[in-house]
Each structure stands twice: as structure tokens, then as C-alpha cells.
Amino acid sequence: MRCEELLRWINDYVDGTLEPGLCRELEGHLAGCDPCTVVIDNIRRTITLYRGDEAVELPPGLRERLRGALAARWRELHASSEAGPAAPDAPGSGAPGSGGAGPPEEAGGGTGSGPAEGDRPG
Amino acid sequence: MTPAEAAAADLSEAALVERAQAGDFSAFEALAARHERRLYATALRIVRRPEDAEDVVQTALLSALEGLAGLRERAAFGAWLARTATRAAFKVLRRRRGPGGAALLQAGTGATGGCPPGEDCGDEGAAPPRPEFIAGWRDDPTSLVERREVRRLLDEAADALPEGQRLVFLARDVGGLSTEETAALLGIGAANVKVRLMRARLALRERLTRALGDPARAVAPHAHGEGGAHVHEPPARAAGEGGGP
What is the pLDDT of residue B122? Predict the structure, then answer.
């Protein structure tokens, strides 16, 4: 395998989805090729860096608005069950979006905004 | 953070999810606090408007709250939440296009959007970018991510990508969506997603390595002679050495 050919399979290799035969061939190339080994390490670090990136800080008031919206929705979900958990008393509790960051329509209705079908881990 | 949140913050992700599923709202608040900055950063990169990013974070957290009871793989809460936020962010992009809006991206030259690696992909060009500056990084990503100048570098590098590559990279590598779901969200073929992702990863790698790579650990790219034998070339130069991007 030449270095240029390795680029064709680099995605699947990094993602761990490369077919076993090709994976062995690619790793055979890596055993004798420092540049390709470093490139793959660089790519993994690049992904890790982006994936771990966090905003320096949230916009003013957003955290409180989120808490209020979550507390209000929590109370709604548990209100019908007398044996359910006590209503939370979070700071800023109130109607979702009352602080100016109201939930988009698909969230405000409380239905149809859950994780996509088939995306419930486990 | 309330005292209950503070106490919950020491718990594992799975333990917090279990508590929240049992009805402990402060545990869910602690989960939200753990992830809200990262969700906001991801959302902002996709939708680019702070007010839309706020909506995305709220949508994702409300969705997580509503879907919490069905979550069985508790340790995967963070990844599940990231995917939920990414879908919400792409929904915002589609909504901007109006009712029944067109696909977010134009497919490659293939009529179905399929674009095998190495072949032409319309705006993506033909050949994948060849790595030029190759070097181990000076620091580990976990120690880099808190640095403000590194955040600026990440923003600039992502913004410099063609839109198709940028969105695919954000959906796949940051949002954790599958190739197939990314293709469906963007209105292109799965093969096209793979090509764009490869190009995005290589382009970001090049730019970040020129800034974060250690010139003392630079290695020359290999050329190949007859029969595929390696032929050594002189190493490229890092940023600041006169050979920057």
C-alpha cells in the first residue's frame, strides 16, 4: 500500500470500521511509515480537540433560562403522578422561554422533540 | 450551583442519570451543567447565530429530559445528548430555508450524490489534499482545549473549510451522527459524506498541525518510486518558520 492509497481508507480506519483484511494491510503499511502514523495521530487529536471544545462562557442569563425551562417541563411531566417526584424549585422556574430564550416550537409542545427513533442507547 | 448539584457533580454520569430517572431533578440539573457549554459551542458552530444556538441547547436538554426514562445505556448520556443537539441544530438550518426547503448541500457530480473516494465531487475538487506538514503535536488535546487562542484556531480552521465539508465534519465528528444520518440531514449521498469528511479531516489536520505541531518532531512525507518504494522528501515547514499555510 502506498501513502496515497492509505488516504482512501483513513476515515474507516480512524472510525474503527475498516474491513479486517484492509485493516491488516493498512497497519502493515503503518509499521514502516512514520509519516502516515503521525498523520493518523494528528487526525485523532484534531477530532478529540473539536469534540472536547466548550464555549468559553455561556451568554448572560442563559443558564438561568435553561434551568427555568427544564424545571417547568419537569413539573409538567410529573404533575399527573401523585406518587411522582416533588416539583423542583429551581431558580428562575417559570414558563419555558419566559426569560427570552423560549424553546422552539418543537420543544415547547413537549412532544415530538425526543431523540430520533432508534437512538435510545442500550 | 445548588448544594444538591454540587454533591451530584462528583457522581459518575451513569449515576446521575440513574438518579434523574428515579425522579431527582437536581441530578438532571447537574447533567445539564456538565454538558451545556459543550452543547452551546457545538450548536454555535453549526447555526452560527447565538440566539439560534441558545434555542438548540434548550431543545436538546428538553428532549433529553423527556426521553430520559427510555435511556438504558446511562453512561452514553453525553453522546446521546450531543446527537440530539446536532439534529436540532440542523433542523434550525433547514427551517431557515423555509417550508419544504431545499437540501442543505448540493450533491456531488454523481446524480445520486454518490462520490467514490478520489473521484470528482463537484465543489470538493478531485484529489484529496496531500499531508504536507507532518509532526507530532507539542501538547495533548485535553491540555489545549481550555486555551483561548486554541479555540480561536479551531474556529478559524473550521470556518476556512468549504461549507459542505464543515457541516459534514460537525455532524459526524463533533455531533457523533452516523454517515447515513448525516447524508439524510444534508441531502447528499453517503459516499459523498465520506469524501467530504476525509477532506475536512485532512484540511483541519494540516492547519492545526502547522500551529500545534512540534517542528523538532517533523517528519518528511513519503514519495513513492518504482514499485511503491518509499522515497524521502525534505520536511515541510511549520507556521512561523516561513512555510506556513
Answer: 45
* Contact between residue B209 and residue B135 where contact means Cβ atoms under 8 Å apart: yes
Q: Which residues pair with B134 in a beta bridge?
A: B219
Lowest mean pLDDT among B118-122, B127-131, B218-222: B118-122
State the distance between the two ends of chain B, measured CA to CA, in whole angstroms.
44
Query: Is some CB atom of chain A closer than 8 A to the CB atom of B90?
Result: no
Query: Considering CB atoms only, which of A14, A73, A115 is closest to B84?
Result: A115
Q: Is the dihedral of CA B116, B117, B120, B123 positive or negative?
A: positive
Q: Please judge whether A55 and B38 are an interchain contact, meaning their C-beta atoms are less than 8 angstroms apart.
A: yes
What SS3 state is found at A106? helix
Output the pTM of the full model. 0.79
Residue B227 corresponds to which amino acid?
G
Distance between CA atoms of residues B109 and B158, nearest Å: 24
- Dump the DSSP string for B180-232: HHHHHHHTS-HHHHHHHHHHHHHHHHHHHHHHHEEEEEEEPPEEE-GGG-EEE
Rounded Cα distance, A88 and A100, in Å:
21
Residue range A80-98, pLDDT digits in tens: 654 455 545 444 333 333 3
ipTM higher than the 0.85 cut: no
Residue B192: list chain A partners with CB under 8 A.
none
Which is more confident, B44 or B11? B44
CA angle B108, B114, B115 (to 5 degrees): 65
